[in-house]
Structures are given as C-alpha cells and as structure tokens.
Amino acid sequence: MAGLSQLGNSLYRGDVSYNIVGRRKAWYLVSAILIILSIATLGIRGLNLGIEFKGGAEFSVPLTVANDESVSQARETVLAAGETPSTVTIIGGDTIRIQTPALSTEASNALSAALADSFAVEEANIKVQLVGPSWGDEVTQNALRALLVFLVLVAIFLSIYFEWQMAVAALAALAHDVLITVGIYALSGFEVTPASVIGFLTILGYSLYDTVVVFDKVKENTKGIHGGSRTTYSEAANLALNQTLVRSINTSVVALLPVLSILVVGVSLLGVGTLNDLALALFVGMLVGTYSSLFVATPFLCQMKERTAENIALAKRVQARRKGGDAANDVKPEMSIGAPIVSSAGPRQQRVKKTRSRRSGK
Asked: How many other β-carbons are positioned within 10 Å of the β-carbon of residue 324?
C-alpha cells in the first residue's frame, strides 16, 4: 500500500508519467478487437431474452432440495404435457424454475397440475407467471426510452459543464462499455431480464462518473494553456490521466470486490440464480468502464482537440520553443567560457584606476 501511495504521489507530481494518450492506437486496437468479437457473438448467438421481453410462462416449483435430477424431471414433465421448456434452472437450491413460450390459461393450468403431481407438491404452492408478448414489447420500449433520455441528459450536462468534445468522448466511451457488456452477455448465455437493464444503466452511471472525474482534471490542467507555449493539450491531458490513475484503480477495485462476491459466492455457492443478471452486468460493466474512462475517452478527446486551430497553433509554439531551447543549450558552453574572462578583467581595471587616482591626489 505504501508503494502504491508513493506511486500515486509521483504520478501526481509528474515525477513518473505513462504516455497513455500517445499510445492511443494500441488502446483503440484492443477496443476494436473486443467490439468486433461482441458484434460477431451477437450476430451468431444473439441474446437470451427473458420472458419479460419476449413473453412466455414461468413456473416456480418449491422443493426440499433441488438438484440436476430435479431439472431433468421437470423437463420430462413439461414435454409429457405437450409443451416445450425454454429454460429450467435451480433457484436458491430449493426451487425449480421452468420457463416456456406463451401459454393459454388452460394450458398453463394443465402444466401446473402436471408439475404438482410429478413433484408431489400442492398445486397452490406453485407460482405461475404469464407474460404476453405485447407486455414484453412494452418493457423493451420503456427500457430503450429510459436509455435514450439518459444519454440526452448526459450530453446536455457535459456540454454545459465542460464542452461538446468532452460530451462526444464520454458518449463514445458509454457506447463502448454497453456494446462490450452486451457481447459478454451473448457469449455467456445469461438471461437478459429487467434486472439486466438496471445493471446496464448502473454501469453507465459508474463509467460516466469515472470519466467526469478525469475530464475535470483535464479541464483544470488545460485552463489557460493556449496563452502560453510550454505544453500541448495532449500532454496536459496525459498528465491529468496520470494524476487520476491510481485513484481510478483504487475506486474500481473497491467497487468490484463486493460485486465479485455476489457473482461468485451468491451464484456459484448458494445457487441464487436471480443474482446472475445484475451481478454479471455490474462486474463486466465496471471493469470495462474503468478501462474506457482512462484509455478511450481521454485519448479520443485529445484526438478531436488536436484538430482545432487553437491547439494546432499551440503545438507549433511549443515545438518552436523547444527547438529554441535546444539551440540555446548548444550555445551556452561557448558563452560560459568567455564569461569568466570578462568578469575578471573588469574588476582588475577598476582597482588599478582607483589606485592611480589616490596617488595623484597625494
């Protein structure tokens, strides 16, 4: 911890610096690979949408102990009733959840009775949820509407508080995070439920928070920079990244540990399947969000800012100043050789004149 604290102090003072902005092509390549894989996975496998989005029926059968044999028994019971099970999972170690395509009320009652008879439980204890396709479409539309409103408000806020280039860079980082997270969902086969949508919105807020912290430091470091000629915009922004690097890493680690415990302990050990959707979205989103705020948003911002006229002029002044400084350093050795001779001769001549004037006065 002491070493990490010392590194943070060195990064903040500028004693140690990582050229994050200068290596943006490498970060872009990593992001491009992840995005291409996500798009390919979405095209090949697609998302495993829950019944809340596509409609269907869900039956929750309480058991004393649920195991793999219970899952097989549930599948056979549904098939024997003339229906097709979409998914059969264990919830909490003592409940079997069966999801099927949309069913009529009569078919739902018949399947519920068959499950009660197969597992020797009271039919009244079986929870049945029927979701129509129209309701699923409405949930999807509301989720997309909420996401659109969120993005518009974010763009307006960032444009007012910072500038429009920062708003564009932040939105690009958000799109980067959502696309990769959705690709991970498609690859893992996890079910997309309203809890997943909540997780997506949560990671957007987290990613935005980390990006705003970095941008605020960039704004502080670049304030009044165009009136001088000491550093370019990208160099000042890279310093801001280094100054917030350790802070971002520490915040992310602290946030990821409890989410990881939910994902590992809750899902793997306790078998709490309902936590899958939220935990995976939060874990992947926070991890990718930290990466994008440091290695995507700010480098992309610098790439846009470097094309403006004032920053092009600033870069030329900085380059000219540094070339002039190098030329001055080349002349300094010659000037230093002659300087002692001039300075030593002057005082000697003055002392001689003073001595002569005193003698003539006598």
From this structure: 11
Q: Using an 8 Å Cβ cutoff, are 154 and 162 in contact?
A: no
For 242, the token pair is: 């280094």
Residues in contact with 356: Cβ distance below 8 Å, sequence separation at least 6, in sequence order: none
User: What number is the average pLDDT over the span 23-42?
Assistant: 93
The answer to whether 129 and 193 have CB atoms below 8 angstroms apart is: no
Tell me what pLDDT residue 324 has.
78
What does the radius of gyration of the chain's CA atoms come to, in whole angstroms? Answer: 33
User: What structural domains does the chain harbor?
Assistant: 8-49+135-312 (1.20.1640.10), 56-131 (3.30.70.3400)
β-partners of residue 58 are 99, 129
Nearest to 192 by CA among 242, 114, 139: 139
Answering whether pTM is above 0.90, one says no
E-strand spans in the chain? 48-49, 56-62, 87-91, 95-100, 127-131, 191-192
At residue 329 the predicted structure's pLDDT band, cuts being 50, 70 and 90, is low
